[in-house]
Design brief:
Chain lengths: 193, 207
């Protein structure tokens, strides 16, 4: 066995040993919804990591900065909507990494102040409130699914390697054709002289 | 260090695309039959390397391997890295399609740079010097990439030093691991497949 190989395996093993799922380097996603009188949301990395303690900025129409907060330990954030307008939420995870999500004005509670009345809405037979509660429940249920969809799977990796193999084949064909054409031209030239 | 869609302004995106197109033209012209399998192999390695994470304090960064790609491929690093970045963007949501040009320049330019700076000692020198040069190539390529990333972000973030400092500190540990990986791969290749590192010979053939 060549002498360099064990050292290479050691280095690779070292790299893999430190491989961690907590991944700031991956694509950052963010999702938010109105809940009670607040807007709650979560930012996460597609590798399955959380975005801890990062600035969250809330913009109104025309790019006006309305509110600033930070994500907590779990990557979650919450704030009372400053106004009933479309809110563009931007999570700044680091240089070159940010995610945004827009909460539409119609999904926000009508009053600017939170009211616990919504919690008891089914009794009140308020169709709007029931709809809001169902929407909330569905959002909560599909959140893990949403995050799962973004996860990188083995088939993505294998698919990518397959694409590279295919492109290598095409490049092989093209450069071989160029080489054969050159060789053919040389032969003809030699035959002519 | 892959910049996502929506972080950069249009002039930066356009500039990156133009530079990447120039690099592609250069790289494709240099790519001949002998380069093709190497380019495919290193594009695969670069594509997968981004999944290997190195934890750094609260966050983590991933291996880049662009130094190695540059040492083996020279200017052909441009097409290899562009293909790998395109697939990372499509399949992993890593980086983005509009930022493909900028990201290609960020990764491939340092690769070609370390090839120009350190390619010769690695081809000519003994294993010890080659290992040291490989280590330096791995580290320098990551450092150059971090500086270029900060430079691309300067218009979006309106400052250069802070993102550059942040990226360099986050990647300091990656630089060490990357240097070690590149050094061992270079010594390994020099021992068993020296022709892989011998891009110069191929170019003379071509001329």
């Amino acid at each position: 066995m060549p002498k360099g190989l064990p050292r290479f395996m050691c280095a690779l093993g070292l790299g893999l040993a430190f491989a961690a799922p907590d991944a700031l380097a991956h694509k950052i996603r963010c999702f938010a919804r109105a809940e009670g009188g607040r807007v709650v949301g979560r930012a996460y990395a597609t590798g399955g990591g959380t975005i801890k303690d990062r600035p969250v900025e809330v913009y109104g129409p025309g790019g006006r900065l309305l509110h600033r907060t930070r994500t907590d330990e779990k990557g979650e954030f919450a704030f009372v909507p400053p106004a009933r307008v479309d809110l563009r939420i931007v999570v700044k995870a680091g240089p070159g990494h940010e995610a945004e999500y827009t909460v539409r004005a119609v999904d926000l509670p009508p009053g600017p102040v939170a009211s616990p009345a919504q919690e008891t809405a089914p009794g009140a037979r308020d169709l709007g409130a029931i709809r809001a509660l169902v929407g909330q429940a569905v959002d909560e249920k599909i959140q893990p699914l949403r995050e799962d969809l973004d996860r990188i799977r083995l088939r993505d990796v294998i698919g990518g390697l397959g694409y590279i193999l295919g492109l290598t084949g095409i490049a092989f064909y093209l450069s071989a054709r160029a080489k054969l054409a050159r060789a053919g031209a040389d032969r003809r030239e030699r035959a002519a002289t | 260090m892959h910049i996502a869609d929506g972080c950069l302004s249009a002039p930066v995106l356009a500039g990156g695309a133009v530079l990447a197109a120039g690099g592609m033209a250069w790289g494709l012209r240099r790519m001949d039959l002998e380069h093709v399998p190497r380019a495919g192999l290193l594009a695969s390695a670069f594509f997968v390397a981004s999944l290997i994470h190195v934890p750094v304090g609260p966050s983590s960064a991933h291996l880049l391997l662009n130094g190695l790609v540059g040492l083996v491929l020279g200017p052909v690093a441009f097409p290899a890295i562009l293909v790998a970045l395109l697939l990372q963007a499509i399949l992993f949501g890593h980086g983005g399609l509009t930022t493909l040009g900028v990201n290609t320049v960020i990764m491939a330019f340092p690769a070609v740079l370390v090839y120009g700076l350190l390619g010769r000692p690695i081809r000519r020198a003994g294993p010890k010097v080659a290992a040291a040069a490989g280590f330096a190539a791995g580290m320098l390529a990551v450092a150059f990439s971090a500086v270029l990333t900060a430079a691309a972000l300067v218009l979006a973030e309106r400052r250069f030093l802070e993102p550059a400092y942040l990226l360099l500190t986050v990647h300091a540990w990656v630089m060490l691991v990357e240097g070690a990986v590149t050094a061992s791969l270079v010594t390994f290749l020099q021992r068993v497949r020296p022709e892989l590192l011998n891009a110069q010979m191929m170019e003379k053939d071509h001329a």
